[in-house]
């Protein structure tokens, strides 16, 4: 992403998170990024494109990371732990963008709304496949993988309302605590220790 | 609550959930409830009062129910299970109101914003007190009760995005599943079966 584009998206996310998408004035955004409307829209498109790019960027990033983790993790429990750390890090690092997403994704229309919801589903499906694979191997309790995964995703996703982005140690510690609880809750045998991190 | 007032709040919640608080036109609400602006505001106040009443009503209801459950439940695990069922029932029954809350509570100002955030804190504190009491009695693992409770609240609260309000059986089943996972994850001894429901 070009630095100019990144700077515009960051400012737009901060403005939308603060005032809501519908409430946010574009004149204010022009002021904050120091560009006139024409230059602004040259870089991004229109106001709805800004909202779309804010959600799309984070969701595609998370789908990419998790696809890679799922391909490389030694087993399903380790995979859930690594995906959990990656998710909580991202929410802490991009709390503003996730606030905008959860607050106003419904303000998107047509193809943009469809794509953002599809990305959210694709992300949840990665978790569901890992969970279902663990259940099929007799590691996790087999009941209702979709509902179980929506539960653990809720533990993490709800954190955009309270997480403080003050460092990896904290978010990793919280991610590990939630995975300890969740895995102890669903594992059919005693749960293994956290895997070494990949970063 | 008077039937007229209840009808106005219900229509306002549906409108705000659909179009966002800032995006929702009051002319549309007048049309939908069949009242002119003056009559509308006579019943509720102004547009921000509508937003405030939508959140306040559900939050006060949940604080009230949970305070009662916490006073009457036989033990901490049973208490968490009953509070969980009550919460998921309420989210399924009032998904529209919770959508408005999470989407636009930030659009509230001054005393109204302060009061809504205080109610949300008071509700979480009821859960935290129950959890801390269980930890003090050696039932639950003692690590980080606040973070643990934010996790289980996340499992439930995130459901406003996906829960279908199609009957008690379903929401109770999901609440029980999440409590099974959470309690198995935090209990220091094997977890007891679900208690009989109080309703």
UniProtKB/TrEMBL annotation, chains A, B:
UniProt superkingdom: Bacteria
Extent of the signal sequence: none
Record key words, sorted: DNA-binding, Transcription, Transcription regulation
Residue ranges: DNA binding: 25-44
Cross-referenced Pfam families: TetR_C_24 (PF17932), TetR_N (PF00440)
RNA-binding among keywords: no
Domain named HTH tetR-type: residues: 2-62
Keyword Nucleotide-binding belongs to the record: no
InterPro entries assigned to the protein according to its UniProt record, in alphabetical order: Homeodomain-like_sf (IPR009057), HTH-type_TetR-like_transc_reg (IPR050109), HTH_TetR (IPR001647), KstR2_TetR_C (IPR041490), Tet_transcr_reg_TetR-rel_C_sf (IPR036271)
Name of the protein described by the UniProt record: TetR/AcrR family transcriptional regulator
Organism: Actinocorallia libanotica
């Amino acid at each position: 992403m070009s630095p100019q584009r990144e700077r515009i998206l960051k400012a737009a996310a901060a403005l939308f998170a603060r005032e809501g998408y519908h409430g946010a004035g574009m004149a204010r955004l022009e002021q904050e990024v120091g560009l006139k409307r024409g230059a602004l829209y040259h870089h991004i498109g229109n106001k709805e494109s800004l909202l779309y790019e804010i959600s799309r960027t984070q969701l595609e990033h998370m789908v990419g990371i998790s696809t890679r983790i799922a391909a490389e993790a030694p087993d399903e429990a380790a995979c859930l732990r690594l995906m959990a750390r990656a998710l909580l890090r991202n929410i802490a690092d991009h709390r503003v963008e996730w606030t905008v997403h959860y607050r106003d994704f419904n303000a998107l229309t047509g193809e943009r709304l469809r794509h953002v919801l599809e990305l959210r589903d694709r992300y949840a499906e990665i978790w569901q496949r890992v969970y279902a694979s663990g259940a099929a191997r007799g590691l996790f309790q087999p009941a209702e993988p979709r509902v179980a995964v929506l539960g653990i995703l809720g533990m993490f996703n709800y954190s955009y309302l309270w997480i403080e982005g003050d460092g990896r140690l904290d978010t990793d510690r919280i991610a590990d605590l939630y995975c300890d609880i969740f895995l102890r809750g669903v594992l059919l045998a005693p749960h293994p220790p956290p895997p070494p991190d990949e970063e």
